[in-house]
Amino acid sequence: MLSKTNINKFKQNGYIILKNYIKPSLINSLKDALFTMFSYNLKKSVRTNNLEDLIYRLEKEDHNKVYNVQKAISSSSEAITLIDSLKMGDLYSKFYNADKKKIHLTLFQTPVQFPNDDRFDFKWHQESGSYAGYSNILTCWFPILGPVNEIDGSMTLIPKSHKNGIRETFYVKKKSGLNDWTINLNPGEDRNAEIVKINPGDIVLFDSSVIHRSIANSGNRIRVTGIVRALDICSGNQILPLNKENSHYIEEKFTR
């Protein structure tokens, strides 16, 4: 699954891109599950087989219904099958030399980014800023509906930024309700930032101390991505469920 070169590259840069990691059939099954859920929430006769068109219709009616689908997908059997195929426990164990029995996953989500709409875009931040109770969180992020890039929306990461530790975080609540935990960059620090350009089936894995931000969707297609995180449940002060009742875990950190 992972070569020594992959592991060394992750440790050096704080992230790695793995091409053709997810089987196309699993992506298609997940899209079918999303279509079923968006269709049901629309509560109208659906005369389209196009997932993107369906999301647009539901967003026009009520954004909360879109938001609820992208959160509720975590309990879908199709989503669970796909997440199992990622082998997050194995990946985490190899990257951090951790006991696989201690590895837990956050709820899988499928955030939606609309063209020319920055309501849910994040500024420069670290995952560690919003999950302060746990160390070495591994995030897996991947496109579902189509490619991600500098046009259709994506994310950009600063190589090796994880080596400088956790920065001071500033909490900002956007008008959209999005919780953002921003950091300040040093002059020129983003000079070597890399935009993630991948297709459905590819994944990017990154460490919680890597500095990154959203890339706005300036194209004409909706961007739908999947995101799940792995962490050592024993790295906190005590074993607590990974939900909003746990003060060390912030559920609203759901998109890029």
Plain-language structure description:
With 256 residues, the protein is of the alpha+beta class. The protein has helices at residues 4-13, 24-42, 51-61, 63-72, 77-86, 88-96; strands at 15-18, 103-105, 112-113, 138-143, 154-157, 170-173, 179-182, 194-195, 203-207, 212-215, 223-232. The strands form 3 sheets. Strands 1, 2, 3, 4, 9 and 11 form a 6-stranded antiparallel sheet that branches. A 3-stranded antiparallel sheet has the order 8-5-10, with no helix packed on it. Strand 6 and strand 7 form a beta hairpin.
Radius of gyration: 18 Å
Distance between the ends: 26 Å
Number of strands: 11
**Major pleated sheet:** 6 strands, antiparallel
- In sequence order, what are the helices and strands, one letter per element? HEHHHHHEEEEEEEEEE
Summarize the structure.
This protein is of the alpha+beta class. The protein has helices at residues 4-13, 24-42, 51-61, 63-72, 77-86, 88-96, and strands spanning 15-18, 103-105, 112-113, 138-143, 154-157, 170-173, 179-182, 194-195, 203-207, 212-215, 223-232.
Task: Please describe the topology of this protein.
Elements: H1 4-13, E1 15-18, H2 24-42, H3 51-61, H4 63-72, H5 77-86, H6 88-96, E2 103-105, E3 112-113, E4 138-143, E5 154-157, E6 170-173, E7 179-182, E8 194-195, E9 203-207, E10 212-215, E11 223-232
Antiparallel strand pairs: 1-9, 2-11, 3-11, 4-9, 4-11, 5-8, 5-10, 6-7
Key features of this structure:
single chain; 256 residues; alpha+beta; 6-stranded antiparallel beta sheet; 6 helices; 11 strands; 27% helix; globular; disordered C terminus
